[in-house]
Amino acid sequence: MYERFTDRARKTMQFANADACSRGHEYVATEHVLYGLLKEDHGVYATVLSGMGIKKTDILNRLDQLVSPDTSDLLMGKLPLTPRTKNVIEYSIGEARDFGHGYVGTEHLLLGLVRVAEGNASIALQDNGFRLESGREAVISLLGCNTE
């Protein structure tokens, strides 16, 4: 599933799984992917957020308000993805294709997350001012790519 993912995007998904395990959740949801993304301080996604004036700490604070930890035992191993998280992956691949990229990077994951409007990740991003179209414009500006 992650063949076309960059090393940072793969690492994001590993961080997402680890975050879900540490919270006692039995699944990887959109919020875990966003936690995983925010754990990586570098990458195009970080430059996009910074350029839009969106602070990582503000997103983390909002996520912490939305996500309740499970009090059960810590889990280990590879957890299943929720349907919304699967949609994030599909949207990320679509975003990469729309940009003409042969890879899925952190910037595509960021755009995929905000497209799943019902997910906690999208809510946290939008509550902090991130919008899909302005995010796409920022990626185009930063990478100098053309989507036409």
Q: What is the CA–CA distance across the termini?
A: 27 Å
Question: Share of helix among residues?
Answer: 55-70%
Q: Measured on Cα atoms, how large is the radius of gyration? A: 14 Å
Percent of residues in β-strands:
under 5%
The CATH architecture comes to Orthogonal Bundle
SSE map:
Blueprint: H1 7-22, H2 30-39, H3 44-51, H4 56-66, H5 83-98, H6 106-115, H7 120-127, H8 132-143
Helix pairs in contact: 1-2, 2-6, 3-6, 3-8, 4-7, 5-6, 6-8
Structure description:
The protein has one domain (7-143): Clp, N-terminal domain (Double Clp-N motif). The chain is an all-alpha fold. It is built from 8 helices and no strands. The two termini are 27 Å apart.
Keywords:
148 residues, globular, Double Clp-N motif, 8 helices, mainly alpha
Summarize this, please?
With 148 residues, this protein is mostly helical. The protein has eight helices and no strands. It starts with 6 loop residues before the first helix and ends in a 5-residue tail after the last helix.
